[in-house]
Amino acid sequence: MTDEIRAEVELTTANLREDLGFFGKVLGMRLDSIYPADAPSVATWSGHGLRLRLVEGEGTPGHIRIRTDGEFADGQRELTSPGGTRVTVEELNPPLVLPQTEHAFVVRRLADQAPWVIGRAGMMYRDLVPTRLGGAMIASHIRIPDGGPVPDMVHYHKVGFQLIFCYRGWVDVLYEDQGDLRRLYAGDCFIQPPQIRHRVVEASEGIEVIEIGVPADHVTEIDHEMTLPTPDYRPEREWDGQRFVHNLADGAEWFPFRLPGYQARDTTIAENTGGVAGVQVVRRAEGEPVWARHEGDILFGFVMEGRMVLEGEGKEPYRLSAGDAFVIPPGMKTRWAEPTEDLEILEVSLPGRFETQAE
């Protein structure tokens, strides 16, 4: 008796005889079995990490997707077998494509009761920018209602930029080449460089984070080989030109913000991403708020504490409070008016450095 298990995908073919040459010569798969001998109607093939069973008969043809990093099928990307099976050939590791930003003025208020949905590892997600600016970015308010261990696996994201900002509570995460457990407290943040391996380990009860990802639709892949923590500590390592950042709120210095009437603490993210993005925490300071416009690509804000009125040229004013989010498109004149003394805003910009014209 053997413990070996083989799984097969069954496809229908309208012409098994002609498909034998296609799957063998064109797709380079190996014929493992065929029967009955006098009039074959079933054949099994293996190759490219796949085992499939071709059964001659009526039915809807199947679709195979083959990913490769080399030459395949004479460079063809879309093929159809004589029996009707569609075959799509894709790059194994295609380059990251960043969609062009579809600029819009966006306000998302917690009071609007946007639905929370259950996502990866049982975490709950709230979409802060429903339009996603045409696929250019995703902003999520994430929470884990029950504290304790998180059922996560070692994984990585194929992104251009990713921020994890702790809004409430704390969370423990392991990162590739960054030593032992890293704990984020409220006000702290991580920059997860593209494809850095990591695993969420444990979280406090009621943990909430703000996650920004570019582009909006990006792939998360599981790494079944790596074990964290890794033995080496390499703080200067770069992934696609970006370094890991663990920025702490405690002891941070505050400086004048780009808008009068406010001050900010910088998270060093613009420096460590090569200017790809910038992240600042903003609070009230001396002076009166003014009308201003910016020339960046994406400018996202999330109200963490306090209240303010967001005024926009040609728009009705929005009274914002903790949990509300907004996006201001380039060239649009706005004012952060009537800020309360406890106002605190998370601002994320792409690129990290851009011009602001105050009026």
Automatic annotation (TrEMBL):
<dbReference type="InterPro" id="IPR011051">
    <property type="entry name" value="RmlC_Cupin_sf"/>
</dbReference>
<protein>
    <submittedName>
        <fullName>Cupin domain-containing protein</fullName>
    </submittedName>
</protein>
<dbReference type="InterPro" id="IPR014710">
    <property type="entry name" value="RmlC-like_jellyroll"/>
</dbReference>
<dbReference type="Pfam" id="PF07883">
    <property type="entry name" value="Cupin_2"/>
</dbReference>
<feature type="domain" description="Cupin type-2">
    <location>
        <begin position="288"/>
        <end position="348"/>
    </location>
</feature>
<dbReference type="InterPro" id="IPR013096">
    <property type="entry name" value="Cupin_2"/>
</dbReference>
